[in-house]
Amino acid sequence: MGFDIASVKAGWSMGLAAKTCDSCKSAAAAIFCRTDSAFMCLNCDSRIHSGGGNNKLVSSRHERVWMCEVCEQAPAAVTCKADAAALCVTCDADIHSANPLARRHERVPVEPFFDSADNIVKSSPFSFLVPSTTDQTGTCQQEDVEPGSWLLPSNPNMNSKLGMEASNHVKTGDLFFSEMDPFMDFDYQNSFQQPHHNNAAMDSVVPVQTKPTPIPVINNNNENCFDIDFCRSKLPTFSYQTQSISHSVSSSSLEVGVVPDGNSLSDISYPFGRTMTDPNAPISATTTANNQAPQAGGIDREARVLRYREKRKNRKFEKTIRYASRKAYAESRPRIKGRFAKRTELDNEVDHLFNLPTSAAAAAYMSDAQYGVVPSF
DNA sequence: CGTCAGTTAATTCCCACATCCCTCT
DNA sequence: ATAGAGGGATGTGGGAATTAACTGA
Question: Where is the B box-type domain positioned along the sequence (predicted)?
Fold first, then answer.
């Protein structure tokens, strides 16, 4: 099926304009420099952080992160592996508090980079996807690229899976879906294990997070989002209070299919010191002038979240097998025109006679295949 | 340029049942 | 507080049906 990029672009162009570069004030910001607490477009980032002499030496230590893929108004704080998207704290909270499945999404803190964002983009094998934001004169250009388009991105975090992460990991030899993020100084993978759900843990191919764990959230009523001070220049100062970034699936947050609306958003306390419904509320002492992303009203946020969901819907994901045992059983089941058919006594006998897969055989197969085995009784 | 038919590709739906997981005792 | 039973919900794959996009006349 062909992909109507034009229509996608048109659809996403309705959203909120991307944050503009603090330097040139014209182009859309692509990165956020934690050290400078400044939003920058690729060109300005390249110019400022790749300058010569001492400036280069100093600037090369500047820790930078991509912008949030959804709102493009705030620095990305976490990378959702399931959605393959880099999200800011606010969008992370909005999207991943929607339902229990979303809460299961595995998220890791974004990995800052120190090289020029432009270089990273260019060195990425997917750099051809990234349109130039600089005209031939080398000056910044007001992008006419629609914000939020992950196919034709206005910023290089356009596709965190392909762009940001791939480029970030090109140098480290890592892959986006590597089990361990070398950037993290704790084993988040292990933290996802379920000490008391051995069967499920063993059976699941993808991490299933059902074990409530302490929530690494400060000043945030939403249990499932991170609270990170973007302006901190040193990574180890990330304010994770626990050794796990697992998010809670506590019973108190199990309302199914509840998408936060504008009103509910007002209850969310943002680390930026403002509430959604009161953008003029005083900024907390720790808030910098650059952390004003969530100023947008609830309607804007709703639009951005809708845009994100639309974007996510258009993505192609490989099918994820959550339960290998069910897969094995499904494959061994009799079918009629592709549909599962009732297994009769005769079928069972035939299966036995011809040594065809049975429940026990399927379990044995999974055992051989290094899958987790759910004991069948 | 617009319309239509034919072709191709992608998506959705359906089925049975082992397993999951929550509630109740 | 813990264990066990009960039962509704979930997830699984292959093929048919449906839908969407594309192509050429």
Answer: 16-67, 63-110
> A185 or A297: whose pLDDT is higher?
A297
Termini Cα distance of chain A: 45
The reported pLDDT for the residue numbered A311 is 55
Q: Where are the alpha helices (DSSP H) in A13-160?
A: 42-49, 53-59, 89-96, 100-103, 117-123
Q: Pinpoint the alpha helices (H) of A72-138.
A: 89-96, 100-103, 117-123
Shortest-distance nucleotide from A330 CA to C1': C12
Q: Which residues of A258-293 are buried (b: 16+ CB within 10 A; e: fewer)?
A: eebeeeebeebbbbbbbbbeeeeeeeeeebeebbbb
- In chain A, where are the structural domains located? 31-123
Dist CA A64 CA A164 (whole Å): 12
Residue A1 approaches strand B within 7 Å at CB: yes
| Token reading at A146 | 């629609």
CB within 7 A of nucleic chain C: A 1-4, 101, 319-323, 326-327, 329-331, 335, 337-340
User: C1' nearest to CA of A359: which nucleotide?
Assistant: B18
Summarize pLDDT for A92-114 with one digit per residue, the tens: 776 666 555 556 566 777 877 77
Q: Indicate yes or no: strand B within 7 A of the C-beta of A66.
A: no
